[in-house]
Write a structure and sequence with these properties.
heterodimer; A: mainly beta; 0% helix; globular; B: mainly beta; 6-stranded mixed sheet; 5-stranded antiparallel sheet
Chain lengths: 112, 111
């Protein structure tokens, strides 16, 4: 069973607020990922990281930013949330040399 | 990009029936993965396939890595109500951080 955690699980906020979605893993994985998923739809990669101080943008354009100061943490920040940001955000991690990604439970974000 | 076509989009079956779903692509992948996602949760890995032609089982689940490396299949035998959920295929090229996901197959099992 994967040890990857996301908080909060659910978040309802007003437009213009700054928010940070937390993701942490205790497996020592170098690679971490953020995906955006609308209900029942496919996952779209928005950010990933090879390791500490490494961050890259994914194939889906996103107004969010990420940081990787510690191996186990990969927080995602929205400086000014908008209704179009309403979605589920999934964090995942994998070993550097492996393809298998393990997912957290997700954060369901609603921006009013 | 490397589009993954997953079918069927949804399935409604009776408990005890077998299920088959597949994923195809115009591109070659080096790894195929199958995940299951319950409502409000993250995807959970079911089976990972790393070699063309590989056939792997996990309980009542069996998945195959297509010989052409452009497709993969997942079969569920003797379905039960807890099999309900969305099944996603995912493909990844060697040494590439861009994993592509199919749109999912939504499975409903009627008791």
């Amino acid at each position: 069973e994967a040890d990857i955690y996301q908080t909060p699980r659910y978040l309802v906020i007003g437009t213009g607020k700054k928010i940070t979605l937390e993701c942490s893993q205790t497996m020592g994985h170098d690679k971490m990922y953020w995906y955006q998923q609308d209900p029942g739809m496919e996952l779209h990669l928005i950010h990933y990281s090879y390791g500490v101080n490494s961050t890259e943008k994914g194939d889906l354009s996103s107004e969010s930013t990420v940081s990787r100061i510690r191996t186990e943490h990969f927080p995602l920040t929205l400086e000014s949330a908008r209704p179009s940001h309403t979605s589920q955000y999934l964090c995942a991690s994998s070993e550097y040399s492996a393809d298998t990604q393990y997912f957290g439970p997700g954060t369901r974000l609603t921006v009013l | 990009g490397q589009q993954l076509n997953q079918s069927p989009q949804s399935m409604f079956i009776q408990e005890g029936e077998d299920v088959s779903m597949n994923c195809t692509s115009s591109s070659i992948f080096n790894t195929w993965l199958w995940y299951k996602q319950d409502p409000g949760e993250g995807p959970v890995l079911l089976i990972a396939l790393y070699k063309a032609g590989e056939l792997t089982s996990n309980g009542r689940l069996t998945a195959q890595f297509g010989i052409t490396r452009k497709d993969s299949f997942l079969n569920i035998s003797a379905s039960i109500p807890s099999d309900v959920g969305i099944y996603f295929c995912a493909g990844q090229k060697y040494n590439n951080n861009d994993m592509r996901f199919g749109a999912g197959t939504r499975l409903t099992v009627k008791p």
